[in-house]
Amino acid sequence: MSITMTIIVYTSVGTIGIYLVALYFLRAQPALTDVMSRMSGPAPEKASTAGTSLVDGLANKLGLRVHPYLQDSRFLTLPTSDLSLLHKDPAHVLGEKLVAAFFGLLIFPILNLVLTAFGLGLAWSMPAILSLATAVFLFMIPDIDIRRRAAAARAEFAQALSSYIDLVALCRRGGIGSTQSLEIAAQVGDSWVFLRLDEELYEAGRSGEAPWSALTRVSQQLGLAELGDLADIMTMTGDKGASVYTSLRAKAASLRSAQTSAEQSAAVEATEKLAMPLAGLAGLFMALLLIPAVTVISG
């Protein structure tokens, strides 16, 4: 059974390797959704994910070919809201995951070949099992990294959003209309949060969409509940300047209070993590003091 499994694993590795090399030199077929979006309007601006290296180019071409077939799969799902927040292309991320899994399949076979050349090689069934486990682990690593970065981006977004809401409230109190208040406040800051809001509001204005409707759509797309709350406030209050000013200032204050509580909880958690190492060091120090005394008494 082990010999059969080993043959299957390394035959698959060789086949996948040949396929990846062929993909790198062949032109990728664009997905139908991308073609239709280009025909219907300007393509959405995305951060550059595909680099110039061999691995990046291979991941990009592999993702473009495989993503149309796997994007609706129930077993292989990508964190679409996290990717949209980070401006990362789902096809390229899928290609990175597949390339990482392929290299995971190669690590232990190559290492075993080197050991075999020195007469220290293992039975090929063990590298086969380890290579499969490594491939699965490396396939999941990009998802973990994306979720971590998206969580940090959402926290940063919430911090900047409190300032943005204060700016909108000041504009409304100054007699500026709701739409203009949202647009003017977005143009004040130069961080990526303000730039993203300015971009979305600009696109909404060009398409004739209400700005609060655009903010609601973006909040659902990116998983930003705080932005949806801002859109609800602007929708319900309308042109009531005094009412919307009070509601916006209260929302900004609640956001800052939540951020302070979250930072305090993180500080307490970090402090608690230090308790165990410190207790271990204290125990070791006490043992060093007591061992000589116990030795003398017992002797």
Structural description of this entry:
- This is Conserved hypothetical membrane protein.
- It is a multi-pass membrane protein.
- By secondary structure, the chain is mainly alpha-helical.
- It folds into 2 domains: 2-151, no CATH class; 155-258.
- It is built from 11 helices and no strands.
- It has helices at residues 2-25, 32-40, 54-70, 80-86, 90-117, 125-173, 178-186, 192-207, 211-222, 225-237, 241-298.
- Helix 5 packs antiparallel against helix 6 (125-173).
- The longest helix has 58 residues, at 241-298.
Number of strands: 0
Oligomer kind: single chain
Considering DSSP H and I runs of 4 or more, what fraction of the residues is helical?
A: over 70%
Can you give the mean pLDDT? Answer: 78
- What's the end-to-end separation, in Å? 60 Å
Uncertain runs are: 37-52
Radius of gyration: 28 Å
Strand content: under 5%
Shape: flat
Summary?
The protein has 299 residues and is an all-alpha fold.
List keywords for this structure.
299 residues; mainly alpha; 81% helix; flat; cell membrane; membrane; T2SS_GspF_dom
Secondary structure blueprint with pairings:
Elements (H helix, E strand, L loop, with lengths): L1 H24 L6 H9 L13 H17 L9 H7 L3 H28 L7 H49 L4 H9 L5 H16 L3 H12 L2 H13 L3 H58 L1
Helix pairs in contact: 1-3, 1-5, 1-6, 3-5, 4-6, 5-6, 6-7, 6-11, 7-8, 8-9, 9-10, 10-11
